[in-house]
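Q: Give me the 3D complex with flavin-adenine dinucleotide.
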Amino acid sequence: MDFTLDSEHRMLQEMIRDFVEKEVKPRAAEVDREHKFPREAIEQMGPLGLLGLNVPEEWGGAGSDYLAAAILYEELGRGCGSTALTVEAHLSLGCAPFVYFGSDMLKEKFLTRLAAGEILGALALTEPGAGSDLKGGVRTKAEKVGDEWVLNGSKMWTTNASVAGVITFLVRTDPAGGSRSLSMIAVPTDAPGLIIHPAERKMGLNGCKTHAVTLEDVRVPLDYLVGEEGRGLHQALAILDGGRVGIGALSVGLAQAAFEEAVKYAKEREAFGGPIANLQAIQFKLADMSTMIDVARWAIYRAAWLKDQGLPFAREAAQAKLFATEMADKVCWEAIQIHGGYGYSAEFPVERIYRDNRLMLIGEGTSEINRLVIARHVLKS
Ligand SMILES: Cc1cc2nc3c(=O)[nH]c(=O)nc-3n(C[C@H](O)[C@H](O)[C@H](O)COP(=O)(O)OP(=O)(O)OC[C@H]3O[C@@H](n4cnc5c(N)ncnc54)[C@H](O)[C@@H]3O)c2cc1C
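A: Here is the predicted complex, encoded as structure tokens.
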């Protein structure tokens, strides 16, 4: 499965797998059923260095590469979708703006604490009227007043907002509009005027907290600008390229979990005088599931590797995310089918895994947007 992984990555994988088996997977059903934020597991991950895994060492992180992060998301996804998305949103969306674009002051102030797991991070791009079309749709604005930014507007679907210490907002800083009118600004979650609404009720990922956020005359210093003024859209798209590898890896983990459940059940369940695993119809399903998971995993590893080499990876990331998330949808669907009626019951994990994966085809670039990205690259070359 992982012969391309060197000993360092393999050791990391084993360490995380062990942690997930002991601390994450056993809590997954309760996290889902009780809509419970997986606080215990998250708090344990800070001292293990996992909440700053691919943050540079000089800013308090473990300094690992993106392949390591992909391994982290996959292994967490194999144990619990809610925990995995919380961590993915923290690292890929919360930490990334500071890692790639933050000033030393912002890194010192926020990134060191994010990397240590003292606080979690979040990124607020989406708005009630803007998801895929951030360029045209973002209405949240920031104006310079004296030596401060004053922010007003509404964001939707901000993962981790209620458990985060800092949120980076994509805001319009030039009312004239256009691709150079958006910027990113960091806002501590205790800033007056920042209102985090109750967690959304969702189809799955019930332990991962996602919120609408309102900004009413929120004031932060001018140097809380993350990156360059007017480059917010460009920065957001660069962050999402990396995020796609993360979401794809998470889907590989979810698919792996559903597959393992299906194999176990097929060996145990008897029909027509023997285990259903003896039936060729079931064997073919398992063969297809295994094949698709492996192919998706390789696609994710390749995209992560390209990113780590500093090579172009946007097309490969979009392809990997598209394939892995849609693959996991099919694998989970088949895992439920193999379980028959029990697959539809909350007593078995496959229905939760199916629900948890559904978001992956929507968040950090829908399947349709990924197809557009891929087509653009194909037609350009
Ligand atoms: C649980 C959850 C967590 C989330 N976490 C975050 C977060 O932390 N931060 C954040 O900023 N956002 C977050 N999001 C928002 C998510 O990124 C958006 O929902 C997603 O980008 C799609 O945007 P939208 O919902 O506005 O859909 P729309 O953009 O309105 O799209 C609706 C449909 O139209 C399609 N479509 C749109 N444009 C095109 C096009 N040009 N060509 C073809 N089809 C198109 C889409 O693919 C989709 O099928 C989260 C969402 C959920 C559900």
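A quick observation: The chain has three domains: 7-120, 122-230, 234-380.
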